[in-house]
Amino acid sequence: MTILTSSRGSCGGVGDPSSEKLAPLEPDDVLGSAVVTCVRRRVISTGKREGGGGGEEEEEEEEEEEKEEEKEEEKEEEKEKEKEKEKEKEKEKEEEKEEEEKEEEKKKKKKKRKKKRKKKRKKKKKKKKKKKKKKKKKKKKKKKKKKKKKKKKKKRKKKKKKKKKKKRKKKKKKKKKKKKKKKKKKKKKKRKKRKKKKKKKKKKKRKKRKKRKKRKKEEKEEEEEEEEEEEEEEEEEEEEEEEEEEAEEEEEEEEEEEEEEEEFMDFLRGRDYVDRWSLFC
What we know:
Layout: E1 2-5, E2 22-24, E3 30-31, E4 34-35, E5 41-44, H1 54-184, H2 190-280
Antiparallel strand pairs: 1-5, 2-5, 3-4
C-alpha cells in the first residue's frame, strides 16, 4: 500500500518521520493520469501503523483529496482540449471564408474581362459599319461625278454637232446664193469665174482639211483626258484598299497583344494563388 503525505507534515502522529522509509518526490511524478505537484514525501508501509487508528483516516482523507485534484486536473485538460478544438474550427472557418472570397474575386474579374471584350467587339463592329458606310458614300459620290461628267461631255458634243450643222446649212445657203450670182455673170466672165471657182475649191479643200485635222486633234485630246481621269480614279481606289488593309492589320495586332497580356495576367494570378495556398498549408 502506497501512502502519500501532503505538505502539512508527517502521517497522523506516527513517530518520527526519519524513522520511516522515506523517498523524495519530484514535481513530475505521476499518479494515474494527473501530475502531482503538492506532494513532498512518499511513505511506503504495509498493514496498520503502530500508535493507533487515527493514521488510517488521515490516509483516506488524503487519498480523497488526491482523487479530487486528479478530477480537477482532468477537467482542466478536457477544457484545454475543447479550446484547441474550437480554435481549429475557427481556423478552418477562416480558411473557407478566405477561399470563398478568392473565388468571388476571380468570378468578378472574369465577368469584368467578359464585359470589356464585349464592349470592344461592339466598338469594332460599329467602326467597321461606319467605314463601310463611308466607303459606300464615297463610291456613290464618285459614280455621280462620273455620270455628271459624261453627261456634260455628251452635251458638249451635241452642241458642237449642232453648231457644225448650222454652219454647214449657212454655208450651203451662201453657196447657193453665190451660184445664182455666178450664173448671172457666167456669160460675161466665164474664164474669170472658172479661175475663181478653182481657187475657191482649193481654198475650201484646204479649209476642210484643216477642220478635219482640228477635229481629230480635239477628239484625241478628249480621249487622253478621259484616260488620265480613269487612271487617277484607279490609283485612288488602290490607295483606299491599301489603307483599309493597313487598318485591319493594326487591329489584328492590337487584339493579339491584348490576348497575350490577358494570358500572362491569368498565369500570374494562378501562380500567386498557388503560392498563397502553399503558405497557408
